[in-house]
Design a protein that fits this description.
The chain is an alpha+beta fold. It is built from 3 helices and 13 strands; from the N terminus they run ββββαααβββββββββ. The strands form 4 sheets. It has a 4-stranded antiparallel β-sheet, with no helix packed on it. The chain has a 4-stranded antiparallel β-sheet with strand order 10-9-12-13, covered by helices on one side. A hairpin with a 2-residue loop joins β3 and β4. It is elongated, with a radius of gyration of 26 Å.
Length: 213
């Protein structure tokens, strides 16, 4: 029960519904009692948090790359959030609590530009990744001048090596230098394209899990 002090226009002391009145340093105040969550750790909430954490772990090392890779889908949200939204629904497999990133289905770039044809990634020389693809610039909206988007993710080290302005589509190959400490690590390699004027981006293609020489 609440008490109205000093008449109808005075301060309120006590509780009326979810409104609490009181006085602090001679100042009358009203505040809303915060709503309580009966069970903040339901199975559904834990499931979603686990999945969210897995995708966040995947995307954090490539945050700058995503500014190009997901620019077409950054509508009323950041590029990073657009990537989170897509990969939460499409880039994870398993059941709680054992979720894993589905690397072949995850995207690090997304858009309507023509994508990769017959891309491959290998590591035959120390500290290098060799990437190749077919020149499909006569297909759809692909152009010979489209620049390659290349990303090499090292999940164990929580790092990525990438370029958002690689060789053009018609050149069909690139060799990316890697840190010496990557030797023996398994990395995930992605390839996509961005138009020369930066307005169009393709869906990325996962070129495989590659052990660095």
């Amino acid at each position: 029960m609440a008490i109205i002090n000093q008449g109808i226009l005075g301060g309120v002391s006590g509780k009326i519904g979810n409104v609490i009145g009181g006085t602090w340093k001679g100042i009358d105040y009203l505040r809303i009692k915060p709503s309580s969550v009966a069970n903040p750790k339901t199975e559904g909430q834990l499931d979603q948090r686990s999945k969210f954490a897995k995708v966040l772990f995947f995307l954090q090392p490539m945050a700058d790359f995503l500014r190009v890779g997901f620019k077409q889908y950054a509508i009323k949200m950041t590029e990073f959030n657009a990537a989170m939204s897509y990969n939460l629904f499409n880039g994870v497999f398993g059941t709680y609590p054992n979720y894993n990133i589905d690397y072949p289905n995850a995207l690090v770039s997304r858009g309507n530009l023509k994508g990769v044809a017959n891309g491959t990634a290998t590591s035959s020389a120390p500290e290098e990744i060799e990437i190749s693809w077919d020149d499909n610039s006569s297909s759809g909206n692909a152009l010979a001048t489209d620049k390659s988007l290349i990303l090499v993710l090292n999940p164990d080290k929580k790092e990525s090596i990438y370029t958002t302005s690689g060789p053009v589509r018609s050149l069909r190959t690139e060799t990316l230098a890697l840190p010496a400490e990557y030797s023996g690590d398994v990395v995930e390699v992605y390839l996509g394209f961005v138009s020369a004027d930066g307005t169009k981006v393709s869906n990325s293609t996962h070129l495989g899990s590659v052990t660095v020489a």
